Amino acid sequence: MGEEVDKVEFTRADRTAFRAQVHRNLDAFARMLRESRFDDERPMTGIEIELNLVDENCDPAMKNTEVLSAIEDDAFQTELGQFNVEINVPPGQIDGVGLDTMEKSIRDSLNAAEEKASRTGSSMVTVGILPTLMTEHIHREALSTNPRYALLNDQIFAARGEDVQISIDGVERLQVTADTIVPEAACTSTQFHLQVTPEAFPKYWNAAQAISGVQLAVGANAPFLFGKELMRETRIPLFEQAADTRTHELKTQGVRPRVWFGERWITSIFDLFEENSRYYPALLPVTSDEDPIAVLDRGDTPALSELRLHNGTIYRWNRPVYDVVRERPHLRVENRVLPAGPTVVDTMANGAFYFGLVRALADDERPIWSQMSFSAAEENFHEAARHGIDAEVFWPGVGTARATELVLRRLLPLASRGLDAWGVDGAVRDRLLGIIEQRCLTHRNGAAWQADEFHRLYTKGSHGRRDALRGMLRKYRDHMHANTPVHEWPVD
């Protein structure tokens, strides 16, 4: 959805033409895979971090246009809600001290942006769901002013034909109805991009799926929504429900959702793009004039714009990405599992754990996905969303175990080995994986700290619920900007 979309109404002919173009794109993509036309130099990674804007009371600040104007940095862009912005970190190398360099770059960018945002009366917070976001903030006027978001809203609701029903059971229970997709904007995430070859893609995607539950367990950071304490990573069910285009009847028939974990291990990236064209009608059927086969015939690289636009409206937790940079095509696994925050150093620790673990599992002679069912990986994912750092997950050769014990005993050594395979500097490796280790030992991640601090102010203190959430978020913001790892944050 990063693409600009100008058209505001679509005809049946538009949809027919778009479907035909997607299929032609697929034919061209299959030919490219056969002919090995992809950039396979040193692996690159990029990071996208979605942020929330708050005012002096730590309530949502509907000011992303003003904030972006003040920042004047192309790395920062609009997101779905007026209380969101996103930073796109330039691609960099994993090896050597690359992760350290990326961390410093992100910190420098955020510090400069925060100083400029403060001139608008706003502050930036990296958190999975803004704890002070309430139902009164969820209305159509809260959509960002870019026309593509209103268009996406209209197309999703045209497909649904009815309002969104959000129902989440956790520590408390939430039942609300929404007539816009703004609740989706409440879900702010960190997205790790890993460039891989076509041959390696299925191994890395399968590995990323297999560890998604463990990632969530140690990285959960979204326990509150609309004033209620729900799951430890409430962002998962919220996103699944807020972006769902299916009616109740279509769900009953087993029609696949647009926010999707998947249903099987893959053997080629082509499997995923083919599923997109087979199972999902177009939300934004905008066609280009490109003939991708003709482009290939003359030795050039096609944009495959229809394939990419369609892919951008299907929200896999690990998404395949085709992109072209300087006329050279490449493939990426986009890991969308984790929430934003709590700090930049926590984000980089999450990244190191992910990059190292998927590398070790992808290199393993006996793949993990040959030892566990796909449904077990999906069950781990939703178990971790519910319980966070206290989740119990299944792992081959171990059975069902506390996620923290699994990480400490099995997965951190694997991640360390994987980072060595990438060529990551030993001091960088140990510092970042040490943060994951300490989270597991202290049983404190972002979600755990938020819940503990809220209950100190509300359950054990004299604050009302909303003031307790504001007070908690105020302390969260201070710790976040100090860049202290969350396992060191006090509750006092």
Automatic annotation (TrEMBL):
Gene Ontology MF terms in the entry: ligase activity, forming carbon-nitrogen bonds
Catalytic activity: L-cysteine + L-glutamate + ATP = gamma-L-glutamyl-L-cysteine + ADP + phosphate + H(+)
Gene3D superfamilies, alphabetized: 3.30.590.20
Annotated PANTHER family: CONSERVED PROTEIN, GLUTAMATE--CYSTEINE LIGASE 2-RELATED
The protein's name: Gamma-glutamyl:cysteine ligase YbdK (ATP-grasp superfamily)
Naturally occurring in which organism (per UniProt): Kribbella caucasensis
Phylogenetic classification of the source organism: Bacteria, Bacillati, Actinomycetota, Actinomycetes, Propionibacteriales
